[in-house]
Specification:
Radius of gyration: 23 Å
CATH architecture: 3 Solenoid
Pfam family, one: Beta_helix
Organism: Actinophytocola xanthii
Keywords: Repeat, Signal
Number of helices: 8
Strand order of the largest sheet: 1-2-4-6-9-12-15-18-21-24-27-30-33
Number of domains: 1
Protein name: Carbohydrate-binding/sugar hydrolysis domain-containing protein
InterPro entries: Beta_helix (IPR039448), Carb-bd_sugar_hydrolysis-dom (IPR006633), PbH1 (IPR006626), Pectin_lyas_fold (IPR012334), Pectin_lyase_fold/virulence (IPR011050)
């Protein structure tokens, strides 16, 4: 389907000025770095193979690091004061043969790679840059061949704060290409073919003011961790844990073996905008047991086809969505730039399905089904979420992560099932929960949560445009709803939305 035809046709229709501006005049990259169809993602560019090079000569006052001397970078770092700038000459730099051979930066250190400078772990070293120094800059390097274990990272292994990681190629490593600390800026990098994640934004402490902008995040999870540890939830292009304030902008996130962008457990205040997210095996965006986000102006295409086919082949009716919202939504008591989960101005094209809003009735603080290990941001003492007090407010509401205050509007949803090899169980939206039964003291029994997410928690579709044979699920997965019923009571969704059966 050519979305340019849709763009021209919609100039006189009802999406509104903001959406029309978003959908009408921008371009995106294709696999070769050229341009293809119009989309709202903006000027997303190919980075891998095109990173901005570092300086060809050592800047004034910089310490030159010799590529021919094994471990020279680590030694010179140790010998130099905080705030030193290091220039790595062209060639391959190594850190010795020991598994813990690494660089321990000091506060304010700057590492600049000359064109052709490579830091190589030789499939022996676990980590490239370690220690909790603050305000470190790494620019213009290729970092490859490190063997970090699962859940650990190669660059900024200890999640130091204030790091600037810019214009690097971080590829072919074990674990995550990098970890993240507070105030970290990740710009213009190629994060490619790492064993688990491109970025693992996790720290034993607060992470806020995180910026991930203009990167190409591609081919990560080469070790296929979900097949090794079923249900681990430990893969993706980027994984965010308890990040409070993040701008994820202008990235090309594609061909990752799993989810593209995955925010999991008590994240808050995310702005996900103008990204091109395509051809990931799992969802493009997965926002899970988290709060308050804006998802706008993204182009999202051909995601979750691998997972969707797996679901369909085994007869699993759960909708494999391209944007998957799980126990997440707007909460005004958690400070953020918005008090809702606002999804607008996006173009979703030829994904397996659209948007799923899901709330697990059995997943709440102190439940055996809660795999997060913690509690909501509204309850300081998880043990208080127990009978009998959990059966009444405020704990009845505050002990569970709720899918609430989600506003889905002014988006394009287009799909041609034949183009994605779908015979059934695709081209769906969902607003669903499960029948609550576990454990026996749970106050969220029977259909209480199903009714709440569907009718009582201010979850709304409106002013969208659909192309293709879209259907809907509400309450649970057992009933297929056609658009006229979806737009009518008791659902009353997608008011002022428009439908075209085929893109032609």
């Amino acid at each position: 389907m050519d979305t340019r035809l849709w763009t021209r046709a919609r100039v006189t229709a009802s999406l509104g000025a903001l959406s029309l501006l978003a959908f009408s005049c921008t371009t995106s990259v294709d696999q070769s770095g050229g341009v293809n169809e119009e989309n709202p993602a903006g000027d997303v560019t190919a980075v891998c193979g095109h990173t901005v090079p570092g300086p060809a000569a050592a800047p004034a006052g910089a310490v030159t690091v010799d590529a021919d001397v094994d471990g020279d970078l680590a030694d010179r770092t140790e010998q130099s004061p905080a705030g030193t700038t290091f220039w790595l000459e062209p060639g391959t730099h190594t850190l010795g043969t020991g598994e813990f051979g690494s660089v321990s930066p000091k506060d304010g250190n700057v590492y600049l790679g000359a064109p052709g400078a490579v830091l190589d772990g030789q499939e022996r070293n676990k980590y490239a840059f370690v220690a909790q120094a603050a305000d470190v800059t790494i620019r213009g390097l290729t970092v490859r061949g490190f063997v970090a274990p699962a859940d650990e990272g190669v660059v900024n292994h200890d999640s130091g704060d204030g790091w600037v990681i810019e214009n690097n190629t971080i590829e072919d490593n074990g674990g995550a290409g990098m970890m993240a600390g507070a105030r970290q800026q990740v710009r213009g990098n190629c994060l490619r073919d790492n064993g688990q994640y491109g970025i693992n934004a996790y720290k034993n402490g607060p992470i806020g003011d995180l910026v991930v902008e203009g990167n190409e995040i591609v081919g990560n999870n080469t070790d296929d961790w979900e097949s090794k540890i079923e249900g681990c939830g430990c893969t993706g292009g980027v994984k965010f844990w308890a990040v409070d304030g993040a701008d994820i902008r202008g990235n090309w996130v594609h061909d990752n073996r799993g989810t593209g962008l995955w925010a999991d457990t008590n994240n808050n205040d995310f702005l996900i905008e103008k990204n091109l997210i395509e051809d990931n095996d799992g969802p493009a965006i997965f926002y899970e047991i988290s709060y308050n986000a804006t998802i706008r102006g993204n182009t999202i295409r051909r995601n979750n086809i691998v997972e969707g086919r797996e679901f369909a082949n085994r007869g699993d009716s759960f909708p494999a969505a391209s944007i998957y919202i799980s126990e997440s939504g707007g909460e005004g008591r958690v400070p953020a730039r918005t008090d809702k989960l606002d999804i607008y101005g996006n173009a979703l094209i030829d994904n397996w399905a659209g948007i799923t809003l899901w709330e697990n009735a059995d997943r709440y603080c102190n439940s055996p089904a809660n795999t997060s290990g913690g509690c909501t941001r509204l309850v300081p003492d998880m043990a208080s979420c127990a009978a009998p007090n959990i059966s009444k407010d405020p704990l009845y509401d505050d002990c569970r992560w709720k899918t609430q205050n989600v506003d889905i509007h002014d988006n394009l949803f287009s799909v041609e099932p034949r183009s994605i090899g779908c015979d059934s169980l695709c081209a769906r939206m969902a607003l669903i929960s499960n029948y609550g039964t576990f454990p026996d003291w749970s106050p969220y029994r029977a259909d209480s949560v199903q009714q709440a997410i569907t009718f009582e928690q201010n979850n709304t579709w409106r002013n969208n445009h659909y192309i293709g044979p879209w259907t809907y699920l509400a309450v649970d997965t057992g009933k297929v709803i056609q658009p006229p019923q979806w737009q009518s009571p008791p659902y009353s969704q997608d008011r002022r939305s428009t439908y075209v059966q085929s893109g032609g």
